[in-house]
Give the backbone structure.
Amino acid sequence: MSTLAGKHIVLGLSGGVAAFKSAELCRALVKAGVTVQVVMTEAAEHFMTAVTMQALSGRPVYTSQWDPREANNMAHINLSREADAIVVAPASADFMSKLLHGGADELLSLMCLARPIDKVPLIVAPAMNREMWSNPATQRNVAQLKADGVHVLDVGQGDQACGETGDGRMLEAEEILEDLMAFFAPKRMAGQRVLVTAGPTYEAIDPVRGITNLSSGKMGFAIARAARMAGAEVTLVAGPVHLATPRGVQRIDVRSARQMLDAVLAGVDDASVFVATAAVADWRPDTQADQKIKKDGSGQTPALRFVENPDILATVAASSRARSGDLFCVGFAAESHDLLAHATAKRIRKGVPLLVGNIGPATFGQDDNALLLVDDAGARELPHGSKQDLAVQLIDDIARRLS
Ligand code: CTP
């Protein structure tokens, strides 16, 4: 379930072309179970109509501090007291400067100033031209707003409405949504540095062929996302998969098991938790042809010989033990049958405190899964659910073990 469900958010729009993304954001928030109260500045109404925002939020929009609908005529007080957060998107350069100085000459800034600062977080999504964004005045304002406790989201990079290209675009609606979900998620993994492997590996035979497996990487990506939401710093070493990088996660792409091992060894000293979800190919061809292997017309097939790949998880776990390190290692087991027996044996063989079993053929490529958590005390089942929900439960479980 989304960390946003049941929240009440005041969505403020100041003036900017990016206001069209706020319509999408409003819709996404409502879909995530949020009640959204839209407040717009006069400048925002030049870019987006209050009618559109009312239709999308299902609530009348406030645009003036003189709104007679409020019995006490104090919309700035009433609206800000009800909110779990105020999110200003787009936050224009001018609006941020106003926030910084405690300006209060229209409803939105007045409401931000009047909010109970300890109870109602203020989150802003800047949106402006790249020169405006990089101007020292704006950067000073951003730094000071952060120092004042305002949560300033990143800006995007790319083509701008003015025709220029650079930093300063407002994040896309789904990126803001993701950041808001992370904002509200309990920070059970704060201070942890989590290294995750995900996806299959690809072992080349020649420049155009190789062997791999059906792992999609979805479980590992979901775990990386859940760990980041829980406040961890996350590095994701990914085999060849077609998945978007979870927001806020550092991703390193690799292809073969040996590349995956190198990337893991380069990052593991900084990690406090290692979660190996990758379906690493057990074997690779003992040689890789530089050129495409051609049929010679004889009907003979090439003789492929295999050598075993390094066991990344076992290597990392053994080296951590040898150094008496406190790296917490979690393995996965993709089995086709006898899950409990195989997972129990594999946990001991790999030398890890926690091993997560799942049925490979039933889950590869799917959006859902069921997990069996095996430790030295026994086994606990996480029943069938979406990979994202299971990832959140697994990260919760790991956080409990670390605390
Ligand atoms: N693993 C690894 N490096 C390998 C093989 C596996 O790091 N070369 C990790 C996987 O990421 C997973 C765990 O070890 O966390 C178990 O992987 P799995 O493929 O289920 O088991 P194998 O060790 O390959 O054993 P088997 O093929 O006999 O089931």
The chain has two domains: 8-184, 193-402. Residues 197, 257, 276, 278-280, 282, 309, 311-313, 331-334, 346, 350 surround cytidine-5'-triphosphate (CB under 6 Å).
